[in-house]
Amino acid sequence: MLKILNNLTATLIFSLVLAIIMIVGLGMHSAGGFDLIFLHGVLRWLHVLFGIMWVGLLYYFNFVQMRVMPEIPAEMKPAVTKYIAPEALFWFRYSALFTVIAGLGLAWARGYIAEALSFGFAGGFSPADLPLAFIGIGMWLALIMFFNVWHVIWPAQRIALGIREATPEAKAAASVKAMRFSRINVLLSLPMLAVMAMYQTLFG
């Protein structure tokens, strides 16, 4: 067991095997077996898995890295900007991508994607569509956050971290831009998570 824990890849593989055992067990003992509802469950699991990584890294950047960076001695900052930040940003942007793919896939599989994205107006709004309006708000907040990650934060971070050549002034401006849009995503994250989590509890 210690050999597994000493290697991240081995740990993840073992964790995935355990998860697959749990997933298969759930399918074998669910009312419908390995039916469409089972597929919905797998998509929800993937959506939550990638979402935890995405939002977790968002909070890491804002609660830890950006807050502590001014206190780090200048000679130690390259360790963060050249090694830690680029690696974290890789997982950050791709977890955002797969969160959105799994979430939209789940909404499509469950048949409410058009109603949710139109806030219940796709088929003519009625009071019964109000829950879909709420989940639609959550979906649009997540899509805005996803757009910020790929089209604002990541391009700005490429400049700020020196991955893309730029002047010192451009790097400073890009760093501020990345920080502000990352803070926008923090601002949007709590209402987005409130809708996503409570919708499933209250309306299924």
UniProtKB/TrEMBL annotation:
It comes from the Bacteria. InterPro entries: UCP032086. Keywords: Membrane, Transmembrane, Transmembrane helix. The chain crosses the membrane at residues 12-31, 37-61, 91-113, 133-154, 184-202. This is Urate oxidase N-terminal domain-containing protein. The lineage of its organism: Bacteria, Pseudomonadati, Pseudomonadota, Alphaproteobacteria, Caulobacterales.
